[in-house]
Write a structure and sequence with these properties.
Elements (H helix, E strand, L loop, with lengths): L1 H8 L2 E2 L2 H6 L1 H14 L1 H21 L4 E7 L9 H7 E8 L1 E2 L1 H9 L4 E5 L6 H7 L5 H4 L13 E5 L7 H7 L6 H21 L4 E12 L5 E6 L5 H4 L3 E11 L9 E10 L1
Parallel strand pairs: 2-3, 2-6, 3-5, 6-7
Antiparallel strand pairs: 1-4, 7-8, 7-10, 9-10
The structure holds S-adenosylmethionine.
């Protein structure tokens, strides 16, 4: 708890609205879990880094700027290796911990933290606390960058985009179908957001989660692959691996959970 509170003090959210929806708390909690689950998460972090490098390589040599969405926690980014390939790395996230800010101090001209809400609706939600109108939801919130990116990645954040917005709305919007449709729209808009840059892209995302009881028996499974259908037609899958997100000991009653992650690129 104490370490989480210390991380919380060191986080910087993109806006007061983002803080109100809980992004600073989430970032601090994620950092604490990174420490607690270091061993169980190691393979996933290494696979994410390898997939990013492989996707960047496929995108071609001599690139000026890479934009990494969901890059605020940096544990899963091969920063030094990407800096061998790109002159500039823009880490984009709705909230940054001290780790990313340290990197931008270390390479002040080359690593830039861009606090930005990729959904474009968080501040609106913080103010109105109701479902946003369709035109707002489908608007692509592209940040203004000094150098246009020639490669864009979205790293382990796609299925996280609806989580806090839905949690914030849940006390006011009781129709679960409406909340689910809203969540799906946020995911679809992010896939269009990626494509809107019109450069090679890499998407690393969870496609399935599996829940187990303490006897390792499968108790539940959720498949998110249908969310990617439109995106997949133009993209190639370059990797798939399991992420033991809740290793035994993390959840009550000996339950545990893995996620299946896939890396796609164009
Ligand atoms: C599961 S974490 C990614 C974890 C990280 N890549 C890692 O494994 O260390 C999801 C990331 O997406 C970011 N994120 C969530 N909603 C966002 C939004 N609306 N705009 C930008 N980033 C967002 C979070 O702040 C967080 O850094």
């Amino acid at each position: 708890m104490i370490s989480e509170f210390i991380h919380y003090l060191g986080t910087r959210a993109a806006s007061p609205g983002a803080r109100r929806l809980g992004y600073a708390g989430e970032t601090a909690a994620l950092e604490t879990r990174h420490r607690r689950c270091r061993k169980a998460w190691q393979a996933h972090l290494a696979s994410t880094r390898a997939a990013l490098l492989s996707a960047a390589e496929r995108a071609g040599p001599n690139r000026a700027c890479a934009l990494i969405g969901g890059g605020g926690s940096v544990h899963d980014l091969p920063v030094a290796e990407l800096l061998d390939r790109f002159d500039r790395l823009v880490l984009l996230d709705i909230c940054f911990g001290p780790g990313a800010r340290r990197l931008s101090r270390r390479w002040p001209q080359r690593v830039h933290c861009c606090p930005h809400d990729v959904t474009g609706i968080v501040d609106w939600l913080a103010k109105h606390r109701r479902l946003p109108p369709a035109e707002l939801l489908s608007h692509l919130a592209l940040p203004q960058l000094d150098t246009p990116p020639d490669w864009v990645a979205s790293v382990n954040c796609l299925t996280q985009l609806p989580v806090l917005p839905i949690a914030y709305l849940a006390s006011r919007v009781t129709d679960e179908n409406l909340l689910e449709a809203f969540g799906r729209e946020l995911v679809q808009t992010h896939l269009r957001w990626l494509q809107a840059w019109q450069v090679p892209i890499c998407l690393i995302t969870e496609v399935e989660d599996r829940h187990f009881d303490r006897h390792d028996a499968l108790t539940g499974r959720m498949d998110y692959r249908s969310l990617l259908h439109g995106f997949q037609t133009d993209a190639a899958c370059i990797g798939q691996w399991p992420w033991q997100i809740h290793p035994p000991g993390e959840l009550a009653g000996g339950r545990h959970e893995i996620r299946i992650i896939e890396a796609w690129c164009t």
